[in-house]
Amino acid sequence: MDRTVTLFCLNLPHGAAIELVDDPMKHLREAAGLQMPAFDKASPLPSANTPNGVVGIRFQFPERDLVSEVRYLEEELAKLNIERMQVEVELKESKERYHEQAIEHRNEIARLKEDAADREKQLTRNLNILEKKLIRNLNILQTEKSATQKELDEVKSQKSEGVDPLVIDPFGLGLGASAQQATWALEACIEDTDRRMDETGKIGTALVQKRSELSERLDEMAQLPPEEELSLDAIRALEADMEEVERHMEEAGKIGTALIQNRNQLSKRLGEMARLPPEEELTPELRKRFADAEKDYNEVTRQSARFFHTNQPISSIKVVQDLEYLPQERGRKGSASSWDFERLANASPTRPIVPNRKLAVNNRVEDIEFAAEISSSLLTQVRNLQGQLSEKDEELRELRAENSRLETQARAVQ
Description:
mainly alpha, 6 helices, 0% strand, disordered N terminus
């Protein structure tokens, strides 16, 4: 509500300032404790007889609508109440959101703790597995190291007196190693490789013979008429022996090829040493070639040692004892275990015995290559024979089913 008020300050004796209003606001005038005379609205100032030292005063008030003012105040109060309610609602929503966020945070923390615990358990399991593997590998390496050291010690004891005692490891040559020392090391490695090639050739030849015997038996089984009774256990045992022989033949072929390649490399290095003066020191380039030869030699040695000892390819082959699946007039009497190959593995392949240098190395190489070729052709033949065996088994099952059906019909007719 518009209202115009014009006030003047009252100058009191003590310097106080009081605001005064006209007659419509008597309560204010009474509160001020003033006795105001009648004013002349035309004159700018009241008379000089103004009480309490009032020197100038002028009031101007229009008419006031108290009802409108009350309504205005009520509207303002209603607005304030609405704002208060809105603030309360917002505060409540904020509390709810904070509570929900707190719950989510607690759940997230719990989930992270569970994930951390699971990861810790998994890491612990992995560490335990790795620790076991490391311990097992360390034991294997320690065993190989002990066997290699034993070989080297025995080889060293068998060398001639002219051998430098510093050459213990064939490739353990110091910075001042001479061409003569390198030649001795290469000769020792070539002799060891020749011995391993000889053992591999013997085993390969025995495997080829064994494979030929099994192939002959498979041929005889394939030529049997369908009506003859067969021993399924004997067939399965024969197939298992054949698979075992094939696996060892493949492994023997790989070992023989690796030994041949390694021996060629060692022979090449030996030829390089032969062109040098015996007392000349090795150049950095030659030492690098020796490092490559050492890596290949150690790898082939480990492979052949595992082939000879860990797998035990000859002694682990079990020969079929049940020969009842062949007719008496066709079958061969006697046990199939007459092929005893253990005599071929009497000499330990890792025993550091230096063989005669005059052995026929080329003949051994040819034997290994010949055994590898025969094994490849025999593998193809085995697969064909296995297919024929499967067909025979299917025919046998059909004949037995037909026989059972005919017997059932015969009993029904009787």
